[in-house]
Design goal:
By secondary structure, this protein is an alpha+beta fold. The chain has helices at 30-40, 45-61, 65-79, 87-104, 107-125, 130-145, 149-165, 169-185, 189-203, 208-224, 230-237, 303-311, 368-379; strands at residues 240-241, 248-250, 274-282, 288-297, 314-315, 318-319, 327-340, 349-360. It is built from 13 helices and eight strands.
């Protein structure tokens, strides 16, 4: 599986009392209750979709993945006929379902939702609309995550062509960069370098974002060749705004975040979902610090590996004044096997190797209190 930086175009305080081990902190039912009230009064489709999205995020944040999927599937069934009037909101239902299904271990539903998101936008906004092209690139990411390299390549090539034909050079350059990164992950370094040069040419020599991505690309190649100082050298020259979404320079591949060798047999990987919300600071120098488990459910022996993955990350350093604490983020880690039909049974069950899936929860309402508390601790302000 390719490194997670493919997503990067367009990702000492005293802690409060910890949650009891092996328990998930329960988020309230405010959004779920609001959805029930909306449906009871037969609210308009736009309100229904928004309430459904809020309720699904609430359920997902609380670790209730099956309920979140149920909310989204029911809302899609009610509202997909309104996609002509609400293309963005309805596509968001599919996009959110794709994320939930990914974490819950339903690969077919994940791809159904990811494709549904794009199909709505293609039909009602047009294939060359910027929103459609952006979500096409998300679809390519999902195809890659599910091992469909050929379709992912075809999707990115199509985005590149449509974006160029319609004069959207930033999106064309972004798609070309993703193609370059894909080829590098496959070991096709010469083709990857040609595509990277194409991305620079499309974006223009003055495009700072693409120049930074080019530098990240070269640093990753240097790392592969054994240059352990490549990331340090890169971090010394790059800077980004503290209000922008943090850009990842380096991290362990997601699939390597497993229990340390010898701690758990392969057979145990077919168990239930394990999840954790990890809070951490991105310091001004781009390193992470104070990584801690905020909430957990069944993480057990994976805890050390998850924290290590966060602690080893490097981000582009921040353009901030002296004394600035940095950016506080919260990531949801889900470790699970996928549902599939095994020989001799017609009932889908979790089977195969456990994989790790990560999504940023920083902006969700469920995580706001934890985020504010830690920022207040670091800055000496009241929350």
């Amino acid at each position: 599986m390719l490194p997670t930086i493919l997503l990067a175009v367009a990702q000492v305080t005293a802690p409060p009392p910890a949650a009891p081990p092996e328990e998930i902190v329960v988020v309230g039912h405010r959004a779920t209750d609001a959805l029930a009230a909306c449906l009871a009064r037969k609210c308009p489709p736009a309100e229904d979709v928004e309430a459904s999205l809020q309720a699904s995020v609430e359920q997902f944040s609380a670790g209730r993945y099956a309920k979140a999927r149920h909310v989204l599937l029911r809302s899609i069934a009610r509202n997909r006929r309104h996609a002509a009037d609400l293309p963005g909101p309805v596509s968001s239902l599919y996009a959110t379902l794709a994320t939930v299904a990914e974490h819950d271990g339903y690969p077919r539903e994940w791809m159904y939702a990811s494709r549904g998101n794009v199909q709505v936008l293609r039909k009602y906004l047009g294939p060359s609309n910027p929103a459609t092209l952006q979500e096409e690139m998300t679809l390519a990411r999902d195809l890659l995550e599910n091992g469909n390299i050929s379709s992912a390549t075809g999707t990115l090539t199509k985005v590149q062509r449509l974006a160029l034909d319609s004069g959207k050079t930033d999106l064309a350059a972004g798609a070309t960069f993703r193609l370059a990164w894909l080829e590098m992950g496959l070991g096709n370094q010469k083709r990857a370098m040609r595509l990277m040069d194409d991305a620079i040419a499309i974006a223009g020599p003055a495009n700072r974002t693409m120049n930074d991505l080019h530098a990240i690309f070269l640093a990753r190649i240097a790392l592969r060749k054994g240059d352990g100082g490549a990331i340090d050298a890169l971090a010394a020259r790059l800077r980004q705004s503290a209000v922008a979404r943090p850009t990842l320079l380096s991290s362990r591949p997601v699939e390597d975040v497993q229990a340390p060798a010898g701690m758990m047999s392969n057979g145990a990987a077919t168990g239930d979902i394990r999840l954790a919300d990890v809070g951490y600071w991105i310091r001004p120098d781009g390193r992470t610090s104070d990584a801690e488990i905020l909430t957990t459910s069944g993480l057990g022996q994976w805890e050390r590996a998850v924290l290590q993955q966060v602690r080893e990350r490097r981000y582009i350093p921040l353009e901030v004044p002296a004394g600035h604490p940095g950016i506080y983020r919260i990531d949801r880690f889900t470790i699970r096997s996928a549902f599939d039909f095994v020989t001799g049974s017609r009932i889908a069950q979790r089977a195969g190797r456990a994989t790790t899936h990560i999504v940023d929860l920083t902006e969700t309402e469920a995580m706001t209190a934890a985020q504010k508390r830690r920022v207040a601790e670091a800055t000496g302000t009241s929350s």
